[in-house]
Specification:
The protein is of the alpha+beta class. 27% of the residues lie in helices and 33% in strands. The protein is built from five helices and eleven strands, in the order H-H-H-H-H-E-E-E-E-E-E-E-E-E-E-E. It has a five-stranded antiparallel β-sheet with strand order 1-9-6-11-4, with no helix packed on it. It has a four-stranded antiparallel β-sheet with strand order 5-10-7-8, with no helix packed on it. The protein has a two-stranded antiparallel sheet with strand order 2-3. Helix 2 packs across helix 3.
């Protein structure tokens, strides 16, 4: 894939994501940006390479920097935080402590889950609404987190966060039981 093709694909993916997160219809975004609805459709389908001026208008209408729309890395984000990078916020000589395991921006409903996955078990999920974020912390075993077809190893003590608007699953490929705590942030309904 050429650099131009990769840029076109990134712009298409990022525009769809941010338009969905903002809750804009094609018509609403076109009106806000001062570009045609057809242009937005062509960009989202990666059928055109818009001028810098049009891209800036769209970024402004979405309220994001142009670099956010053009960023190759703005697709599905998964961040695994090793245990060594968790932040101890408070502790006492008696052994009490609080530790920030992983964080993410949250704008809507938030859920907290406890999971147990036995060796060889897996659980798959369809994509959640655009803008949904999941955070998880593995307390035992090693989780295989599969996000949009890409596996990520999350060992005991590590945490991860990812955008859950794509197919994803949780697998235990090991011989030990996986125990994890997970939270899900769903964007508010617009």
């Amino acid at each position: 894939m050429s650099d131009l093709d990769q840029l076109t694909q990134s712009l298409a993916r990022n525009l769809k994501r941010w338009r969905g997160e903002r809750g804009f219809t094609l018509d609403a975004l076109a009106a806000r940006a001062g570009v045609s609805r057809g242009m937005i459709i062509q960009i989202e389908q990666a059928r055109t390479n818009p001028s810098v001026g049009i891209t800036v208008k769209i970024a402004d209408a979405l309220g994001v920097p142009i670099t956010t729309l053009l960023d190759y890395e703005q697709g599905t984000h998964v961040r695994v935080v090793p245990e060594s990078q968790a932040v101890r916020l408070w502790s006492t000589p008696a052994g009490s402590r609080s530790t920030l395991l992983v964080g993410a921006e949250a704008r809507g409903p938030l859920e907290l889950w406890s999971w147990t996955l036995m060796p060889g078990d897996a659980s798959s999920s369809d994509p959640h609404p655009p803008g949904t974020t999941e955070l998880l912390h593995v307390t035992a075993g090693e989780l295989t987190l599969l996000v949009d077809g890409e596996p990520h190893a999350v060992p005991a003590g590590a945490s991860a966060t990812f955008e859950a608007g794509v197919p994803h699953s949780y697998r235990n490929d090991g011989s030990e039981t996986v125990e994890m705590i997970m939270s899900i942030s769903v964007p508010p309904v617009r």
